[in-house]
Design goal:
With 350 residues, the chain is of the alpha/beta class. It folds into two domains: 123 residues, Four Helix Bundle (Hemerythrin (Met), subunit A); 213 residues, 3-Layer(aba) Sandwich (Rossmann fold). The protein has twelve helices and 16 strands. The model has no long low-confidence stretch (mean pLDDT 95). The structure holds 5-S-methyl-1-O-phosphono-5-thio-D-ribulose. The site of 5-S-methyl-1-O-phosphono-5-thio-D-ribulose has 17 residues, from α2, α6 and β9.
Length: 350
């Protein structure tokens, strides 16, 4: 565990660790307005469902600061512009719509614009701070579950994409469980999927695991069947970008394939995500919009063309894991069994 921060608010300015250049360069970009913030989210300067949400809150504060006459219509339009930056992670609309509620209340009370700005900044700070407590709670729940399910030995764990402090602003969700288990001396080895095509596993998860000195190997996604069939993995932990009411979960593309293979080899498969990643307004995963990203992410590798000229691609950034392949969903309120219909909705309302 460490105090490394991908989002810094300082002197009324937003600084984002440019995750596009990790792990080779650790540089920050300064963001000054709503379009700049939305672009940073779209271009994945900042990424990971929770961090996208936190960044957007500060983006809304920056927008309010730049306004002379605020109206509810302008506020809604600005919020929608921010929400449009990336479609799949519900945390973005979750946090921005909470900003909109604050704007509405402030306008109805005829508060000065400066107070709304201060309140939005304070809200961003508070969400990041609270996420630490939530992530710690999820980590402890995951740890206890591992003790029960896998037993009292050192565990070999697998993860997909990046769910650590770079994605969450603190500790992490799935990687938070791994990091916590490691702090208790219970991790033998971690297998980090490389995460084609954006390489979140190779670039970011491996970076985080090395910062925390957790023993790991990077593996290609296609190695899952080999590893799982050879008993190399005791349990799998992944994050989530949106979880529907029935437990179907959108996460980085490749997650669903991994879950299906895990079920075949009877390896426990857990989704770890805060309640802000739940979208109980949709009954199942078929209602989740999947972001399609640029061809160049596949045809090029860091600016070097690897596919023939004119090659076309299909590049969905996420997929939906059917709840039947998920052993448990861990949120800050507890462990949810997705096989029990309605349990997720009950937990959200509790
Ligand atoms: O496209 P990204 O890098 O934003 O995708 C991130 C993921 O899919 C993560 O696994 C997910 O957001 C959970 S983050 C705690």
């Amino acid at each position: 565990m460490n105090d490394y921060r991908p989002i810094i608010w300082k002197g009324n300015k937003l600084y984002l660790l440019d995750q596009r250049h990790l792990p080779q360069q650790e540089t920050f970009v300064e963001v000054n307005d709503l379009p700049g913030c939305a672009l940073a989210i779209k271009d994945m300067v900042v990424r990971g469902a929770p961090c996208i949400g936190f960044t957007a809150i500060y983006g809304m504060a920056l927008w309010v600061k730049g306004q002379t006459d605020l109206t509810l219509e302008k506020c809604r339009k600005a919020c929608d512009e921010m929400i449009a930056a990336r479609p799949t992670a519900v945390n973005l609309s979750y946090e921005v719509n909470r900003c909109f509620d604050m704007m509405k209340e402030s306008l109805s009370k005829k508060e000065p614009r400066e107070s709304l700005y201060d309140n939005l900044v304070a809200f961003g700070d508070q969400q990041i701070l609270e996420s630490h407590a939530k992530n710690t709670s999820m980590a402890k729940i995951g740890f206890e579950e591992l003790k029960k399910k896998v037993g009292d030995k050192k565990w070999n764990l697998m993860t997909h994409c990046n769910t650590g402090f770079l994605a969450c602003g603190s500790l992490g969700t799935a990687l938070g469980v791994i990091s916590y288990a490691n702090s208790k001396g219970k991790v033998e080895h971690v297998y980090a999927d490389e995460t084609r095509p954006y390489m979140q596993g190779t670039r970011l998860t491996a970076f985080e695991l090395s910062k925390e000195k957790i023993p790991y190997s990077i593996v290609v996604e296609g190695a899952a069947s080999y590893l799982l069939s050879h008993g190399k993995v005791d349990a799998i932990f992944v994050g989530a970008d949106r979880i529907a009411a029935n437990g179907d979960t959108a996460n980085k593309v490749g997650t669903a394939t991994l879950a299906i293979v895990a079920k075949h080899y009877k390896i426990p498969f857990y989704v770890v995500a805060p309640v802000s990643s739940f979208d109980t307004s949709i009954p199942d995963g078929k209602h989740i919009e999947i972001e399609m990203r640029a061809h160049s992410e596949i045809t090029e590798f860091r600016g070097h063309r690897v596919a023939p000229e004119g090659a076309v691609t299909v590049n969905p950034s996420f997929d939906v894991t059917d709840h039947q392949f998920i052993t448990g969903i861990i949120c800050e309120k507890g462990l949810i069994d997705p096989a029990h219909a309605g349990e997720l909705v009950k937990v959200v309302r509790s």
